[in-house]
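Notes from the 1:1 (GR / supervisor)

We went over the backlog. Supervisor wanted to see one worked example end to end before approving the batch request, so GR pasted a single chain during the call. The sequence is below; no edits were made to it. Supervisor asked that the structure be written out right there so they could see what the output format looks like.
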Amino acid sequence: MDKQQKSQLLIIGDGPCGTSAAIYAAQAGINVTLLSPERKTTKTDFKPLQSLYPDIEKLLKLLSAENALEVAKCGQYSGVSINDKFTPLTQYSETIDLGFHIDRHKFDDFLLTKAKDLGVNIVNQRARHLIQLKDRISSIILENNKTLNCDYLIDASGMNRFVGRRLELTETKHSPDLIVTTGVVEDNKSLIDQNNFSFYTKKQGWYWLIKGKNETITWTKLSLKSEQNLEPPSVLKNHTPIGKVIAHNMTWRSFENSALHGALLAGDAASNIDPAAGQGVYSAVASGIKAAQIIISCLAKPEEELAYFKNYNLWLDNYFELKCEELKAYYRELEIELFS
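Structure output shown during the call:
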């Protein structure tokens, strides 16, 4: 894109949040540019699975992207085994809803391709700096020193929190310092059933196990940062590891303001909680769609931008507060003592 060209909407980040925003906006006829750094993967990479609840299908229908689940699906599950007690996904319904174990890379690639097919301009660069003009973000400087101009910006950069960090926005912690680690091991012992996933609690944390294809188990573990280690749960100590263990800071946190200077912060770039809620991808997609809806409204009625931005901030704050309270209640029920 030439320096003088301007996008109506520029999105930083090509995860489910960013691509969902791009797809929704493009479907409405908005001129969208999406920053999508090239992923460094190899054919030997063994990717941990992620699990999605059935309600993700409703959001994907808004994007005409239901096929993402079929493409990325590695299995389905009918319930969760919590400390070896099975709980079906639908306890009070006559219908049987199934969750999905997915390959996140395939899921993300499907949404990115969908955005590209809708005419979204994909730029394979990372954002390096932002430029403000009259107290408004007007441009992004890329790693190759080229400049992209925009009317509006959505920061969907995830844990990188591009806009929040560069503007030095006030950030609040809502939990102790937490670390989540995840990895893959061989499973030649048929340790768990592929039709559910197993969740086990500890006094100050938890871990879950997902049965994958090709006789593998994906494990994910939450612990206090002070107790961080890269070892799998002890139940897997005799299982052969595959690939690298991934660690992420999962301290609950949020920015005080996620709608300012012509930019909206969405998904983990705005706030995050740990993945025990099981709705990380759902929340990312929902946040991306909501941010796109706000930008579409602003472009239609620029004079109402302040009101629309306040609406987005309120929606995001309420959504985050609700998820925090639900997860705290869940931890109290399971006697997980992360909060005094």
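Supervisor's comment: The chain has seven helices and 21 strands.
Batch request approved.
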